Amino acid sequence: METRLVKADGAAVEETAELLRSGGIAAVPTETVYGLAANAYDVEAVRSVFRAKGRPQDNPLILHICSTEMLYDIAESVRPLALTLAENFWPGPLTMIFPRKPHVPAETCGGLDTAAVRMPRSSFTLALIEKCGFPIAAPSANTSGLPSPTSAVHVYDDMNGKIPLIIDGGECRFGVESTVVCFENDDTVRILRPGAVTPEMLREYCHVVIDSGVLQKLDADAKVISPGMKYKHYSPAAEVYILKGSDEDVVGFIKSRNMNKIGFLGNGNEELPDNTVRFPYGVTPEEQAENLFASLRDADAAGCAEVYVRMPRTEGIGLAVYNRLLRSAGFRIIDAGVSDALQK
Ligand code: AMP
Ligand code: MG
After folding, report:
1. Does a structural domain hold residue 181?
2. Nearest-angstrom CA–CA distance, 204 and 80
3. pTM of the predicted model as reported, rounded to 2 decimal places
4. In the chain, N or C terminus with fewer CB closer than 10 Å?
């Protein structure tokens, strides 16, 4: 199949809507990462999405909507707190989980009796949903297990030959997927996946519980609310490690690695040896969120067998960076300040 890359303009909205209406799939930009879009109510189209990604069938898709009306078409019930959060964070990177109505296909929701819903902020994708008139299921447009795509080229690298159309809307603003929450009760949410809507922001409106799966490793057979939490995720081909410690200790550790080409994501102050290739990362949580996935992909393209990433700060969107990075690194954290870290 030929894969076309098309600029995100009005004509592309028409073309993509036509494709989705006839049961096709296409990659579209959002403010978080690129999504692989299908009519959420079309079981065959949804199956094509799972196939193109190689995504496990029990890992549910998020339904993207453009109006509260669409939410009521999906959700059996909507708590007042959900409406408050929708008013304050939609359109934007917050996904909320609701009991689903029977007509919402089980396939879309990974067999669960709930549906995850969000209203994206990307003007292209909002216009697309409006034009379609149905909610769009759109998981991240990467091959399952690889880092999520934050540019149309990343999507092309994974999906060339597998999907007919990629809409290029430039680089994604946030660079990490949406915050996913479910409701504990009328005034408490549980964060299942951290994102750009941070715990600090949610606490303005309700109590916030952070699920233990956010920063802990889960077994493949673990019973979890959000199935996506237990899978290998966001991993490039390179072996990724999180490096803790001062600039000096970190540089000392890197120098001790006797390898041809080491990938490194740091703050820019480290004086690295010649065998080390630096990829963009940054200092603030926002910069790190924007750069993480692209840099992991670039490290692969550059042929680095190992990539070391400085420990992120975990406030704000930094919690999302740490959550993704832990999975990229298979939860491997090296303390560069400890002398036997060098014996690894
Ligand atoms: P992705 O589409 O790749 O951004 O992943 C979507 C995430 O949302 C996964 O971690 C899913 O487990 C989670 N998710 C989607 N639908 C539900 C649902 N109904 N209940 C719980 N988690 C969900
Ligand atoms: Mg994903």
Report:
1. no
2. 15
3. 0.96
4. N
